[in-house]
Amino acid sequence: MKYLKPMLLICTLLFYVPSIMAADTGQKTGTVTETINAGGYTYLRLEEPEIWIATPTTAVSEGDQVKYSSGMAMRDFYSKTLDRTFESIFFIQNVSLAGQDIENMHREAMEGHGTEAPAIPKPVSVQVPTSGEIVQLVDGKTIADIFVESAQLNDQTVSLRAKVIKVSQNIVGKNWITLQDGTGTEPDNKLLATSSEIVSPGDLVIATGIIRKDIDIGAGYKYKVLLEEATFSQSSELKSETQ
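RESULT FIELD:
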């Protein structure tokens, strides 16, 4: 994908990017001291504290004050386009100047390159499933099961039936998909999956992947449980199965 599009991770990058469910840096501001546009991204070096962030191509100049949030931290990230390794960088979905909205910033940046700016996707509102609404997959697990049994399930392949709540595409080469099935207690009521496949918010799916526990990607981002290398198939089971 050419652009980062709104989730984790990590959706928490992602958005995932959470104990991940799409990690969130919170609302912050910074002064831009350096900008690099490459490969559909704008890389920004900010001061106080000095950090690097990356976002879809955006009209920003040195000296600008920017606001940013919803970021995923990556350590030792290598950019093929720049042939450069960043010791630490945050992938940011939402960056804006004071008094200017995100959509206008992206559109101005693309027009400056003589290219028609793509439509900026609007956030999709998905109703979170209630307890008992989604039928547990036969021989599968619920999200509550996965968190409770994460030690025993670590490095094992599991399947579950769940609803797609949020999708963050092409963040550090992966899609970050937040799943809920109406089980578990917050914050352990949603599971972040990483995948090369893509699904849509609101889809009811059967997800299969490898459980990884206690993942630490640095810069304070730790994930209690991830479902990695996930694959998806569509499902239609919403009501209780008849035995």
